[in-house]
Amino acid sequence: MDNNGFPTVKKQGINYLTDKNEKIVKFKPWLGDLFSPLYDWSMKKTVVPKKFGASYDKHFSILKVFFKDVHNKDVLEFATGSGSVVDFLPADNRYCGVDISKGLLKQALKKFQKHRFEEVELYLADACNLPFENGRFDVAICNLSFNFIENADAFIRELKRVLKTGGIFFCSVPVPERKPEKSRIHGTLYSETELKELFENQLFAFQSLPETNGAILYFTAYL
User: Fold this and answer.
1) Is the CA virtual torsion 213, 39, 14, 24 positive or negative?
2) Angle value at C-alpha 21, between 17 and 27, nearest 5 degrees
3) pTM
4) Domain that holds residue 189
5) Whose CA, among 158, 161, 163, 174, lies 20 to 30 Å from 129?
């Protein structure tokens, strides 16, 4: 049983939520788990440069600068993906990641082990319904995935619940006003103005960052 009343079972390094019949709760990833081996290649060669009109290398340079002084914190990442956070988050943090793709979480686990992250928890779980106690995390991250969250208001409420007072949320997300003219980006795109309103409605202090990189907006939200 996890601390927010969710029964869980751990198998091969991944935590799974279970229902009242003790069966593992299943989720349907957007492209399915069969796509997971191609995820990194697709992000680097297709999604970021072609759909976002952005530089993949510049993206991670921006992330490295922002997180270089983040140490010994309780960090939550929404949409862990294949574990690209190892390329910018110092390994001395206590990391917890959620994703609805079992295939991607398996890839992420291998990366964390390779990069010697000692305190890692991975959960197959929905970002809007988290198995964590209130006020657990110092930092939360959503890297190029906010547009796939189906209910933004529910997500922000859940984010607010699990962040500590004074906690910070860092997000990178494509926005429609920066999108290349003929590019098709999947999911729901919110403008910078809409994102600001969504977060401020939940009493977050929203701050867009000055870095520019194609369609990607970088912003923080503080409690």
Assistant:
1) positive
2) 40
3) 0.93
4) 26-222
5) 174
